Amino acid sequence: MNGRWPGFVKCIAAATLCTACFAGCAGPEPAARSVASPPALSEDELRTARGQLVARQALPRLAVALEPVEATDLIAQADGLDVQEQLKEDGFRGAIERTFRGRSRTITGAESRVLVFASAAGAASFASFLTEHADLFFGGPSAVTPMRPGSPNGVVIKPPVCDCPGAYPLYVGIMAEGNRVMWLQVTGPRASRTQLRALWSAT
Prior knowledge:
The chain has one domain: Protein Transport Mog1p, Chain A (3-Layer(aba) Sandwich), CATH 3.40.1000. Helices cover 28% and strands 25% of the residues. It has seven helices and seven strands, in the order ααβααββααββββα. It has a seven-stranded antiparallel β-sheet with strand order 1-2-3-7-6-5-4, sandwiched between helices. Strand 6 (170-177) and strand 7 (180-187) form a beta hairpin. The longest helix is centred in the middle third of the chain and has 13 residues, at 120-132. It starts with 7 loop residues before the first helix and ends with a helix.
């Protein structure tokens, strides 16, 4: 998985959240990439997870890629947080993501993920873990609010914008649904909670 996220992982892992790094575009999403699934997931589970990702047509001006997400990818994003043990306790089985990257006046980068766990309790536990440790996982004091006012389902996490040229705000949505954790993050000049919620429904 090394080198798969040329800009984004470097920013997250270093806790800089320099979201301008999304400007490096990936190639178009080839149909054959669907076979590169997390080994622990069955074809039916993978098909269901893909159907819950943000549709590739949702951001037509951005390049799209579809790839699996491994435990090591999640561990690499956290600084000083024992994600590995948490994933093990919660029964993490595998995940898949669709990434969008490119130049735009609104959204320049997005990652839509579906994380699959052995049980609904495991998914809920990991979603709570991300919410409770947002500062460590996303690299700084983060504002955590309900996805929708008064709703207990899902949260929006807004990490701090890094102090670097061209940095854009980042918004992350986390929601447990059955034995899955739905994860969507967006960045760009006009990234906002409204943009995040609009993309969330574009499956």
